[in-house]
Amino acid sequence: MSEYIKEMRKHVGHERLLTVGASVHIHKDGKFLLQKRGDSGCWGEHGGYLEIGETVEEAAKRELFEETGLTANSLEFFGVFSGKETFYTYPNGDKVANVDVAFLCEDFAGSAEADISEVTDLAWFDIDNLPENISPPSIPALKKCVEVLKERNDNQQMNK
Description:
Layout: H1 3-12, E1 17-28, E2 31-37, E3 43-44, E4 46-49, H2 56-68, E5 71-81, E6 87-89, E7 95-109, E8 119-126, H3 139-158
């Protein structure tokens, strides 16, 4: 958890905080690398909250490395997700209104290894066969990322 969020929680307890985070959707050969969250047991993309003074790109790369050991060589921005569909209550009762700046990453290095302090598992899923228990705030960006990749694939097929 971000040091800033920890400090704010001292003042507001479990009340809803407006949070800004960056998520990274790792894609290779028609599959996503997803993580199983340690707090909820749900699957989702990699990412987390920004620290004060950090850019969203820096946060995305930092969080990806911390959670998976992978280094993003390049990030492709594909959307900002906010509103009531990104509201979430963590298992500990902390409420957030997420603003998620989402990136697609197909150029990465390293070997994936879960950070057991936050992640219980990493697994590759076919974009047409994602697990059912997706973390609720991850759903909007994940759906959009699938749409972007399918449209890109359709365009590539048409241009052959």
